[in-house]
Write a structure and sequence with these properties.
It is a single chain. The protein has two domains: about 1-60, no CATH class; about 65-140, Cytochrome c-like domain (Cytochrome Bc1 Complex, Chain D, domain 2). Helices cover about 60% and strands about 0% of the residues. It has helices at about 1-25, 30-35, 50-60, 65-80, 90-100, 105-115, 130-140. α4 (about 65-80) packs across α7 (about 130-140) and α5 crosses α6. The radius of gyration is 29 Å and the shape is elongated. The termini are far apart. The structure holds heme C. Heme C (HEC) binds near residues 86, 108, 118, 119 and 120.
Length: about 140
Amino acid sequence: MRALILLVGGLFTSLVFAIPATDLDSTTRGEISERIAPIGSICVTGEECASAAGIAAVSTSSGPRSGDAIYGQFCTVCHAIGLLDAPKKDDSVAWQAAEKKAGGFSSLLSNAISGIRSMPAKGTCMDCTDEEISTTIEYMSGLKP
Ligand code: HEC
């Protein structure tokens, strides 16, 4: 009886391991690389299919982003409506007062980088460079460095 169980068990085990093994054996190199290809290379109907298009899109997005783009993504949530008393975009009176209080544009910039009172560090744009924060302040305040 025990021998029978062992025999059946052994058969079962070899079957289980045999299936994926034969599957792999019959797979060609091409099929494997197709299976492990990055998901990003899948084409979408109506869009350009060449991966070169993706590379071009990536390379144009490197380099400093515009103040407009950063403002729209990170700063607008507070600076559009003056949330928590944030100086509003294009409110030159409020921005000039903030600049005066800080003691010049460079202090305003360093306050924005390190955060001040309810203003979070870098306005939550953690991957922004100092230059990008500066450009964004210019964009929303009209102040010049
Ligand atoms: C969570 C809300 C919030 C976000 C997001 C935010 N800010 Fe602010 N910001 C504030 C508040 C509130 C103040 C006013 C702080 C004070 O003077 O008490 C402020 C003030 C500032 C000041 C003036 C600093 C000073 O010295 O008076 C600058 C410059 C500034 N923000 C830049 C930015 C930039 C650039 C972004 C986006 C990258 C941004 N902020 C995103 C809330 C925010």
